[in-house]
Amino acid sequence: MADDDDDLILSELPDDELVPQMHDDLYDGLRDEVVEGVNILLGRGWTPYDVLTKALVAGMKVVGDDFRDGILFVPEVLLAANAMKAGMAILKPLLAETGAPRMGKMVIGTVKGDIHDIGKNLVAMMMEGAGFEIIDLGINNAAEKYLDTLVSEDADILGMSALLTTTMPYMKVVIDVMKERGIRDDYIVLVGGAPLNEEFGRAIGADAYCRDAAVAVETAKEFIARKHNQMSQTA
To answer: What are the start-end ranges of the H helices in 99-185?
Structure first.
């Protein structure tokens, strides 16, 4: 199969062959090929939004499903996500210009006192791969940092992660401050990290606990869809 791939000239493939090839290239983490595919489709008159959803997001969904099912592992997912990011870098300014519909915007970061970020990075990449806009605050974030960013960025979702049992309780601190400020119901709050579980998520008042990046993406999509439905009913 490898020999055939070496002979592939992406620009010679018709759209209905190029798109599945891009899904394969994404899956294999082939950054240059993904970038080339994005540029070819744009050159053929595809809208940036169609390239994003049909070529990139659809490809990353397969990556996410196989990660969830234990077929792919973290290093492979990170490679795929990096290839996705390279394609996204071309599309981002174009999407902004065309006013394409957005999935939603998420502020994500590791909580105060916690410097572990591999899981958080993976969630951020997978969410971006699903078409969400991501504001990544990095590690060791105080409540004010989360909340100020949520407001200034007009975000939809807050994602918090913790890897230490000692930093887990800080998630409740953040949610309590949101309640004090009267803004808790304005945002979807998702929490994750190795020591957490569903019961903890419920106890601190989060909307959902997500055990891994694939679950985080699915959960975020569900909540955003629900939010849109509520908005259209009240409109």
So the answer is: 118-129, 143-152, 170-180
